[in-house]
Amino acid sequence: MRTKRDPKTWPSASRERQVEYQRQYRARHPETMSAKYHKDNLRKKFDMVPEQYEMLMDMQGGVCAICGAVEPDGKRLAVDHCHKNKQVRGLLCKKCNWSIAAFDHDDLILRAAEYLGVFYDEDNTECV
What we know:
Layout: H1 10-28, H2 30-46, H3 50-59, E1 78-81, E2 88-92, H4 94-103, H5 106-117
Antiparallel strand pairs: 1-2
């Protein structure tokens, strides 16, 4: 004969089982979960599909659009986008993406580049 569960405790017990199952599933299928998160993130944040991301990767040769670095440990490059209109500009390594984000506004980046340009030679290779 079935016994009636305490209505105050069964939802939390069920939730705990669900959380544990999801944790174990993610541990058993890390590649699947990473790909799913990547796909969902692209769609929600940038209205992109993974094929568009891969196209950008191919266009950039698989490296950061600014410094030319490859992300270590097989991590993906970040999607750089304009915060005003959400237009995707390219893919950046973590360091370049964070550096741009620190400026808040694109006009500040341009002014910083102009400022630094004063101190470099015509080839932008050496500080004068």
